[in-house]
């Protein structure tokens, strides 16, 4: 049996352990398979005896990655070769033009459970026909009672086995989620729900995992099943808390973050030490800009459980948003010291290191995340590592390298939303570094991949950055019904677009008014940066300095949410403003920072420094 009571599929001489991502043969010898081959084998084995269509395989294994059917055929061949399939030992049957079927007998085993979770058959005792019914009645009733007892014991063992299977799968899911492998965690929850379809806990966890993976359409059905599952008379505090958390997540899916936080706070009233609730409060509060509330929830969570990886990760990010980079790095070190070593913590501390300006340390953590991703065959970790390295590339002015990293991130991303977000980030990098045509091509891919209201706001703003104001306004208009749920970001986007169009028309007074108003409604480093551009065009050098310093004051937000290209561009522009104000020492300091960041930049980006009068003066000094 697998270690820790993990689910195992057994067929022929092979043991397949999905949670451990391992398949072994005779003598427990490990068999090597690529990540996709392993995922496809798990899919086929888990649906043994059933036709799995090619479309289902593409959806489940390759998801949104565009491949040809030949890739599937090649992967099936790899599986057959690994299983040493021949004419006598067949495992995978090809159904021409349709798909594949796993045809070998399969048993499912979990520690403490019968194979496959099937109930044992009731024992039967031989009973001779009674010759004298009246004389044999007590004995006959005894036999019946004994038979019923055996049936009862058998059913009790079956129920216990099913409970054990469910609890093992739920425990596996929680452990996998903590390790950052949300996809495999969700797979375990789906199996748990086959055993116990009425578990509100499993349904809620599955909905959260789908939401975290940006699969809102998958999260909603789990939530809708919750009210119909367990006994409505179940009035326990835990049941009420679970229901409130579900209502809060439903509000999040509708874009109502304030309403969600209210529900989570109410849920916490039933169990003030619930670390899951505390984490989700902090997560939503951080995204909503309420860093004080987030930090309060996180500190309480870590007092309850000092090793909690979710709250630890979120605390590193929240401290980075707040500009407390050294504290964020110390929090990472503390988590490692107490034994909370999870690969994706490298992503959070990498952001903190980069926001602090330590490129080498940031890259060290992002590369460590990549190594863990490959070792675990985890697409989530691999995609995040590419994202992190792309952030460093954008920070250094290496636009083409950033483009390559984000392309790799898209190829391993698990949802259309994630792919769209990577295209959006690349669009911003391209536009800020002067490649607006390429940026617009990226934006068209964003529009194709996702219709999320949240992304629509960023998409509209970025079209405006590319000077396509018609497209920007059309996107906002298409989401006008979502305006209330999107909160202040919607009117702020309208004024941001008006402000950029005023810059394009050289109406700097209007531009400054609109962009300042947008930033007041919903502050953003991007808005502050473009406000500074308008102020510089006006000759308001001190106003531009104030706006640009606002950008640098949000370095943590710029690094985490992107685009990191804003940081060196801001340093460069500050050098120009300070030179105009006659503050040469400040000008030289900021230009030296830009030169340092762009030491390895693409040639066209480096030319910004080499071609500027301020740069020449600073370099000669």
What would you say this structure looks like, in words?
There is one protein chain. With 621 residues, the chain is mostly helical. It has 4 domains: 3-111, Arc Repressor Mutant, subunit A (Orthogonal Bundle), CATH 1.10.10.10; 149-217; 231-342, Alpha Horseshoe (Serine Threonine Protein Phosphatase 5, Tetratricopeptide repeat); 373-620, Tetratricopeptide repeat domain (Serine Threonine Protein Phosphatase 5, Tetratricopeptide repeat, Alpha Horseshoe), CATH 1.25.40. It has 31 helices and 7 strands. It has helices spanning 35-46, 54-62, 69-82, 133-178, 182-195, 200-212, 216-226, 237-253, 257-268, 275-287, 291-304, 309-321, 325-337, 345-356, 359-376, 379-395, 399-412, 416-432, 436-449, 453-465, 469-478, 483-486, 489-504, 508-521, 525-538, 541-552, 555-561, 566-580, 584-597, 603-610, 613-620; strands at 8-11, 14-17, 22-24, 51-53, 92-95, 99-102, 107-109. The strands form 2 sheets. It has a 4-stranded antiparallel beta sheet with strand order 3-2-1-7, covered by helices on one side. Strand 2 and strand 3 (22-24) form a beta hairpin. Helix 5 runs antiparallel to helix 6 (200-212) and helix 19 (436-449) runs antiparallel to helix 20. The longest helix is centred in the N-terminal third of the chain and has 46 residues, at 133-178. The radius of gyration is 29 Å and the shape is globular. The N and C termini lie far apart (71 Å). The relative contact order is 0.05.
